[in-house]
Design brief:
Helix content is 71%, strand content 0%. The relative contact order is 0.12. The longest helix has 36 residues, at 269-304. The chain has helices at residues 9-26, 32-52, 56-60, 65-76, 87-90, 97-108, 112-143, 165-179, 187-206, 214-233, 238-246, 252-263, 269-304. It is globular, with a radius of gyration of 20 Å.
Amino acid sequence: MATAPIYPWYLRLMFSFVQSFFASMTLFHGSWREGLLAGGLGIMVGAFELLSSNHLTIGYLLNVVPPLIVALVAALLSDHICFAAVPMAASLNLLPGLGLALAMMELSSNNVICGTVRLVSATMTSFMLGWSTTVGYNLGMAILGKEGESTGLSSECEGLSMLWWILFVPCLSAGFAVWFKVHWKQWPAVIFASTMGLIIQTFCDRVHVMSNISAGIASFAIGLFSNLYGHFTHSTTNATIIFVGIIQLVPGSIGVRSFISYMSADMSATSLTMNMLTSAIGIAVGVILSNGAMYSELKQFRLGSF
């Protein structure tokens, strides 16, 4: 028998705004204007996602039509906003970063078939999102009479102070929790794990020696916390905490930007692609090591107690 959903559709749409609003100002360094625009467009993308679950035709166009509309609207307003902070934030749930990280985990575990399928799927999703964003941007520039200008995704936005992240990151994590149907009783653990992971990654990125392994260190901390939480609370929610926790670390936007750079004849496409793959590998290795460290320590503890 089908059970009633944990959260009604209108609440999930409302939290689509929350996700995109706070993601724009944290993950993509936007300001209040970019956040409000990304949040409004995020509601439109969320509506497409909800409709795609019941209408197969809409599901086929999910990775093409919403990103194109988002990029078109953002391009038309590009004189008043930082374009780079809007498209990826508004299309946050469409980004293939989680699928890419899962593909690396499968391949690391010698599950070649599943890993290859996930990797190809994430790559094609990145290509479709990148193509749609580029077409929407170019169409908006053509309407404004600015054909030939370089895409705004290659620029960096000057965001708010990182002190705002103390408030923004937990709200962003709550948005992910609602969208992925996490029960409200699990929110404190999910919010703590997500906030901890993003803080660790941000700190490691600022240290040159640790920048290449920042995602791996953060995912290791998230995995270790989720396993400890599941062990001491005797719950089976540790997988949920890991998935929602690493969703802010996954390099989905990097993959989309690499295809946009490729289609814009930008030579940085190769480096962006390598950055995407190395981040995904780091996340996979971190999660696997956290599981191994947790269960090996528990085994030694149990043996030593006799």
